[in-house]
Structures are given as C-alpha cells and as structure tokens.
Amino acid sequence: MNEPPPGRRERKKAATRQKIAETALRLFLERGYEAVGIRDVAAEADVAVTTVFSHFASKEALVFEQDQDFEQRLTRAVADRAPHEPLIPALRREIEALVRHCTADGAAPIWKMIESTPALRKYEESMRLRHAESLAESLAADPGLRHTATACRTIARFVIDAFALAREAAEPETALDEIFRMVEAAWEAGRPTAKAGGSRP
C-alpha cells in the first residue's frame, strides 16, 4: 500500500530530527559519548532541550536514529507483501538493507563507540529484543502464515540476530546467504500440517 507523501509539517519535523541526530553523533565521535550531554547536543543543533526529548526518548536513542524506521520496515515486510510473495526473502531484503547501512563507509567508528559503551550496548540489546517482539506479533497476526506463536517468536529472533551476525562477518553477503538458508529451513520445519485451502507462504 502506497502512503501519501508527508506534508510540510511532517517534513520539517523529520528534518529537525535528522539534524539533532547528526549533530549528536558528530559530538559523540569528536568528544566521546560520556563527555557529551543532551544540553550540549541541543545547543550545537540550535534547538531547545525539550525539542531533543520530543524526538528522542533518551541520550542512547540519539545514536540509533533509524531504530523506529527499521522496526516499521520489518513489520511492513510481513503485512504489505504481495499475496503470493514468500515471507523469508521479504525479510531478508530488509536485513540486507540494514546491514548495508551499518557497514557503509564511516560506520566503523560508530560501532566501535557502541561496543565500548555499556549504556549503548544495553540499549542496542533491548532494541533488538523489541524489534523481535514486533516482528513476531506481525507474523502471528498474518492469518495466511498459520504458525504457532512460539514459531513466530523463534523466527523473529533468528531474523533480528541475522543482522548482528552478518554485520560482524568478513563477508556480510555470504553470511546472509548462509544464515537465511537456515532461517528458511527453520520456518519450513515449524509449518503446521497443511489444511484445505490456499495460504500465503
């Protein structure tokens, strides 16, 4: 389903959010994550502290600006795919896009900062769990899939973990090929006995 283009107000809000996130990330990399506070970010971005918090719930969230967008893309990959489009390739495309984003030029210092900062590591772990739960709910809500709640949660965890495993691999694309062959096999293994009538794969 195609969504209408955002209006002027939405575009302005998105631009402000992007400016805050980019400013925060630059300051974190220049000065160190612990040395920069929300007031520093607000001052550098020329916005009020309340404006920062209207876009980001916490300091940690400033580092993961694509968090909500990625979660929505995953759930839409399930709900908005064509009636006969296979599920696992649709999910793989979203994971592959995120891996490309997170392994692009300039991303290494950001991940080094995340991995060396306990608060950011903890936030990323909770974020991944949240993404997995949202994906599992989307899978379970699709009447054409007909997998148990446990199967949906299991596959959702596998899909989310595929991102971290591929991102850390020397050859991310090869890693994704290997991982998603196993994800596909696990999804098929969890399929209940077919009943009369068609269903989406």
- Give average pLDDT, whole number: 90
Backbone structural class:
mainly alpha
What is the radius of gyration computed over CA atoms, rounded to a whole number of angstroms? Answer: 19 Å
| Topology as a string of helices (H) and strands (E) | HHHHHHHHH
Q: Helix count, per DSSP?
A: 9
- The total count of strands amounts to 0
Which regions are unreliable across 5 or more consecutive residues at pLDDT < 50? 195-199
Largest sheet: none
The gross shape turns out to be: globular
Question: How do you describe this structure in short?
Answer:
By secondary structure, this protein is mainly α. Helices cover 69% and strands 0% of the residues.
Helix-strand blueprint:
Blueprint: H1 8-31, H2 38-45, H3 49-55, H4 67-79, H5 87-102, H6 108-115, H7 118-141, H8 149-168, H9 172-189
Helix pairs in contact: 1-2, 4-5, 4-7, 5-8, 5-9, 7-8, 8-9
Characterise the protein shown here:
With 201 residues, the chain is an all-alpha fold. 69% of the residues lie in helices and 0% in strands. The protein has helices spanning 8-31, 38-45, 49-55, 67-79, 87-102, 108-115, 118-141, 149-168, 172-189. The longest helix has 24 residues, at 8-31. Mean pLDDT is 90; it is low at 195-199.
Notable traits:
disordered C terminus; 201 residues; mainly alpha; 9 helices; globular
